[in-house]
Structure formats: C-alpha cells, structure tokens
C-alpha cells in the first residue's frame, strides 16, 4: 500500500497488475478497455488502437441521432 500512498487506483501500474490476473485466467477479451490500455502502455500498440476498441461499442450517447 505504500506504493499507492493511500490511493485506490494507480494508472498503468494497476493495468499491469490486473492484466497478469486476466491473462492467467484467460479473461482478456472480457475487459477490452483495460486490455487496450495495457497493450498501449506495455506492448507498444499505437495509441490510435484505443479508437478501435472504443469504436467496437458503437456510437456514444452524445452522438445519437
């Protein structure tokens, strides 16, 4: 807990820890946003790949007709 200084979540460090568990359990596809953040942060995926992840969920509510 010292690493977090009392915080609950710590950005990419949290993504790395959680991905370890998701990979072990084979659950990466169930958490596409976290998986995308991990790939950008640690596997040199281009940041633009996040748009593909977000686009897979259709239009945002603010874009509805």
How would you characterize this protein structure?
With 65 residues, the chain is an all-alpha fold. The protein has a domain at 11-52. It has three helices and no strands. The protein has helices at 11-25, 32-42, 49-55. Helix 1 packs across helix 2 and helix 2 (32-42) packs antiparallel against helix 3 (49-55). It is globular and about 35 Å long.
Separation of termini? Answer: 46 Å
What is the helical fraction, as a range of percent?
40-55%
Shape assignment: globular
Strand content: under 5%
Rg over CA atoms? 14 Å
Number of strands: 0
Largest sheet: none
Low-confidence stretches: none
Order of helices and strands: HHH
Content-based structural category: mainly alpha
Can you count the helices? 3
Mean pLDDT: 80
Which keywords apply here?
3 helices, globular
Give the gist of this structure.
By secondary structure, the chain is mostly helical.
Please render the helix and strand layout as text.
Elements: H1 11-25, H2 32-42, H3 49-55
Helix pairs in contact: 1-2, 2-3
């Amino acid at each position: 807990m010292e690493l977090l200084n009392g915080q609950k979540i710590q950005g990419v460090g949290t993504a790395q820890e959680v991905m370890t568990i998701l990979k072990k359990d084979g659950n990466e596809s169930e958490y596409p946003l976290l998986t995308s953040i991990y790939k950008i942060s640690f596997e040199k995926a281009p940041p633009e790949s996040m748009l593909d992840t977000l686009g897979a969920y259709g239009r945002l509510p603010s874009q509805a007709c």
